[in-house]
Amino acid sequence: MGKILRINMTDMTVKTEELGEYAGLGGRALTSSIIAKEVPPLCHPLGPNNKLVAAPGLLTGTTAASSGRCHFGCKSPLTGGIKEGNAGGVASQKLARLGYSAIVLEGVPEDDKLRVVYINKDKAEILPADELKGMGNYQTVAKLTERYGKVGIISIGPAGEQKLNAASIAINDTDNRPARHAGRGGQGAVMGSKGLKAIVIDDTGAPGVEIKDKDEFKKWSKIFTDGLLKHPVTGEGLPNFGTAVLINVINEAGGLPTRNFSNGQFEHATNISGEQLVEKCKERKGKETHICSPGCVIRCSNVYNDKDGNYITSGLEYETIWAFGANCNIDDLDMVARLDRLCDDIGLDTIEAGGTIAVAMEGGLLSFGDWDRAIKLLDEDVRNGTPIGKIIGSGAVVTGKVLGVTRVPAVKGQNMPAYDPRAIQGIGVTYATSTMGADHTAGYAIATNIMKVGGYVDPLKPEGQVELSRNLQIATAALDSTGLCLFTAFPVLDQPETFEAIYRMLNAQYGLNLTADDVTELGKNVLKTERDFNTRAGFTNKDDRLPEFMYQEALAPHNLVFMVKDEELDDFWNF
Amino acid sequence: MKDISEIEVHLSNSTARDMCSYLFQSGVLLKVQVGVSIKNLLCEQLSLDETYVDKRISTIFLNSQPVDDISNAIIKNNDTLALSSAMPGLIGATLRRNSHLAPLRDTITFKEYRNNDDIQAYDLIHLKLFNLILQEVGPLLLQNGVMVDFEEVIDFFQDKIFEETKESFAIYLDGETIGLNELRKCLQSSAEQQLTLLKAKIF
Fold first, then answer.
1. How far is A270 from chain B (nearest CA, A)?
2. Interchain pair A233, B103: CB under 8 A
3. Torsions phi, psi of A7, nearest 5?
4. ipTM for the complex shown
């Protein structure tokens, strides 16, 4: 088990301590436990009592495939509730190899100076970094690389420095680009409130992660990797097309939110599809398949170049393409890529930013499809902190209030992702009940019947949506604690031995005797811990609802409203 | 100007893939026997291997509704059928045929299952292909010929696919060889036509 590195930004002290009561936890389980125990639920998210936790997963730093996620936790300035968000990149594995299970950032500085934290095998120190003030993530990474060499970098852009609710935390990827983001919930603003521009992680000479039974670990790690490679989604679909492959399919299902959730199908979807993305990547000598963190065998990322072959952005994903594409009525992938690059550089969540611009389009600030104005809003207004930039950077709910827009697709203050819950009602249950606000990843891990989470769900039973959503959220919370990418959930769904490999690897690494039931219990505990924090922060079952318009405005082409009853949603927490 | 009944393009594998991507994502028209099940259509009429249909084409929509039982979903005149391989994400998995997550999309699931008592006539349906299915099935269908909306044919031959390809290709208009520019002129002068047959010979 690793150690906790506590960094106090008020008195500028650094100390290392044992995991203590947090032993056995990693990733989301660890971030949520620390926040729930140590952060007063009613504190201001940007004040001295909030904490920001960065934690590798339990398997991170080992040779387990696709296990390099870095998890962040805090009280969210966007939702007012507990928040966990994670991203790939190179930082998490370095942190784990240095022997850290978590970094806990505490307090706020008494001045307005910027700082970086530098961590290597011998020390962790807080250093002045005012020269990085106002810099985008790309320039920040370039400057820090110049100074420290090949390191892991966790950073914020101007949005985080301005403490905007939609600010993200960036991590550099395998090409040393800050293209991987823990986007949701404004965690970048919490980092900014602590006056911290970046955490630099140098694992040169690091001891590495201890494995109790190396042969056993190797055996199950191979089974796990083989499971990922042989599965049609992780072994073929994602490496070939990335997540953007979903555009055509969700559009066909009538669930692709279009023009601020006013339609379920985008007539120009083929112009922004995964198939189109792959062709452009090939044609322009980008990369149609790419890894975001070392040891990933799924390779769902990409590198997108402009028509002259110059790099624009990396990891152009389904959610981002939807957010700036269909949702803003922009059918030009080049413009969507530019908007993605701006978000990565300024340090903004692409889902919240795209959703907010769509609300602003509906509110008349700009027209649907006006990519030129959208680019200026981000690059000039948000980056430089103009009044309208601060409004846009504060998210869809704030922008909707300012502009008098009633169609604001948010739950607990967080904009919905790329699936309309009126078409696919089950996702609406997850959006409504998730402790995180509207979050598609909250109920992502689809291991329900294999893990027997909550018992077997009859696929022919139409009323099983709440039960399924609950099981999915429990399974996801467990998977989020391992550091494994959520995409590993697909082989876990279809191949029992791939799921077994997860807890067998954990047993071999830590010398434990975990069973499938223990993994389920872990997931349940995480959800209950998060729910308890939110309750103490003032949330009630009335917050577990979709926005009013979704119960009233029928969505084409299926012409449905959201029909899951309130009492069914309330039943979610009965476990 | 007389109607253009058939355009045949002789082209390389890679240009054929580009052509398929262009055509099948937004959909082509196929003249098939309707009043039969989707499974019959795919396996008997389009000659796709049953195992391929069962294992590979794991996500199927009929008029935007996800279908679970393709043996009992009957295809009718003017229907739109969309075929995809297994998709990522919670929703991707939810949309899969016979997914245990199917209750999550219960309200849009295709449920008009009935006996095959429709009139089994030859008529047009819309067919869309996505992702791996587009790459694998598209070229086969293109070799047999697909009906394409004439406006789309005009747009397609205006596209850069042929100008930018480094591979050689040849075009035949109703059996007679024709250059790309000449074809474009012919298409423009027949712009009021509604449909034409587009075929490919892949070398």
1. 6
2. no
3. -120, 115
4. 0.93
